[in-house]
Structures are given as structure tokens and as C-alpha cells.
Amino acid sequence: MWKLVTGMVLSLLPRRWRTSIPEQAIPWVSAAVLSGILETILAVAGLTYWYSHSVTTWAADALDSALRNGPGAEYDPHLLGLSAFVLWSIHPLTWLLASFLVEGLVRIVAAISIEQILPLWILASVDWFYGKVTRRPRERGMADQPGGREHLRSFLGTAKLAAKTVRLRELADELGESEDSGESVLEIRSSRQKAEWIPPRVVRVDDLYYRLGSVCEGRRPRPFVYRLRRLAGGVPGRNVILYHSPLVGRDAHGQERPESS
Questions:
Q1: How far is CA 85 from CA 41, 70, 82, 101, 234, in A?
Q2: pLDDT tens digits, residue range 137-170?
């Protein structure tokens, strides 16, 4: 329970701020979904209260101003209400609350469909601005946000992947081994995106170490294809991704092979 509550808070942070937390320590997907739901509910409640308070107040002030012109002043209550609604629609606070509403929905869809943990846009903007001011170098293997264009491309890519996998049921990964220029290459086909799998991260598959070379789109129902090259020796460290292959995989010749013990 406490891990889930802690994860709901930590999932709001940019990934750079939570790299020291082991991936297995927090149920990130469940925490991100609940965090997105809570953000959406709070945004709807905020919009409802803000609408009720502002529109009622502005319409009452406009009506009072019209009545002060004299007993014979003509006014249209519908027009006053419409004017108050227009003012509410263009108010900065309305746009801010609406951004949280949209963001909460996007975070829910991203977490469920592609297991992508998206932070609050305000915190992500602070992190990006701080990196620009301090000329902070990119971290190897991290999905940093160096510019607005790349951030937009990343967001559109996430939305595209979310739409691509929203109706796909989760399946076990398919593994295939082959050789390329004398090197052993492992290809993993998955029905879900692996959020932390960003080239050139090192992945430990059972007892073997690989370097992630590329990520490309495949065919449904496993549209995510990860190509990894075998490393000669182990490279233990906290940045190594731990991956356990399915109980039964396939080798380069299509024969079944049991999981490594």
C-alpha cells in the first residue's frame, strides 16, 4: 500500500529525478494510473468549482452594473450569462486546470497502453529550463527533453503508440536469436512498450548481457521490436536493465528452449 502511495507521488516527477530508485521497488504502472486518475478528478473538481464561482460572480456583477443605469435599463440575462462564460473560457486559470485534466487522461492512457510514466508538465518544464540554464549535458541512455521540437515529437510518438496498442491484449514476449557479422543478436518482440529500454542501455537477459542497439515497429500483435547484441563480458551496475525471458522462447532455428536457471 505504501509503495503504491509513494509511487503515485514519485510518478509525478521527471524520470531524471527518480533514476536512483530501483525499478522493482515501485509498481510504477499502477501508481501512474492511480496518479493520473486522481489528477483528472481534482482537475474536474477544480474546473467545476471555478466555473460555479466565477460565472456566478461575473454574471451577478454585470447584472448589478446594468441595473445601476436606472429602473428602465434593459438587459438580457442570457447575454450576461454568455458573456460570463466567455470570460471563464479565456481565463488563464481555466486553461491551467484544463491542462491538468488533459494531462491526467494522457498519463492514464500512456501508463495502461505502453507503460510510459509521464511526469507533470510543470515539473518537466522546470527540469528542462534548469538544464538549459545550467547547460546540463544529456545523461547517457536517458530520454531527456532537450528542446520543444523533440518534446513534441516524443509526445506525438507516445500518443501514436498508445493508439496502436490500446486494443491489443498483453502477450508474452517472443525471443529469437540470430547472428550478424559474427555477433549474436537477440530480437525481442513485445506487445507492450518497455519504457526504460532506450539505446544504448545494457540489458541482462537471464544470465547473459546485451546492449540494446535499436527499437523499431513490428507487426501486430507484438508491434515493438527490440534488437540487442551480445556482450562478451558482464557489466553489472544499477543502470543495467534486468529482464527475465518467458518460460519458453525460440532460438535462431525456431526450436523451443527453456528459460535459463
A1: 22, 25, 5, 19, 63
A2: 665 444 433 444 554 555 566 566 666 666 777 8
User: What integer pLDDT is reported at residue 141 of this predicted model?
Assistant: 43
Identify residue 88 by its one-letter amino acid code: W
202 within 8 A of 211, measured Cβ to Cβ: yes
Task: Using the predicted structure, report yes or no on whether residue 232 has a pLDDT greater than 70.
Answer: yes
What mean pLDDT do residues 49-71 have? 69
Asked if 174 and 188 touch (Cβ cutoff 8 Å), the reply is: yes
**Per-residue b or e along 35-61, where b marks 16 or more CB atoms closer than 10 Å to that residue's CB:** bbeebbeebeebbeebbeebbeebbee
The pLDDT score that the predictor gives to residue 40 is 94
* Residue whose entry in the numeric block shows the C-alpha cell 474536474: 44
**Residue 260 Cα to chain centre, angstroms:** 32
Give the CA distances from residue 124 to residues 31, 113, 127, 143, in Å, rounded to whole numbers and listed in that order: 18, 21, 5, 12
pTM exceeding the 0.90 threshold for the entire prediction = no
57-66 long-range contacts (CB < 8 A, ≥24 apart) are: 58/83, 58/84, 58/87, 58/88, 59/83, 59/84
Closest CA to 216 of 207, 225, 208: 225
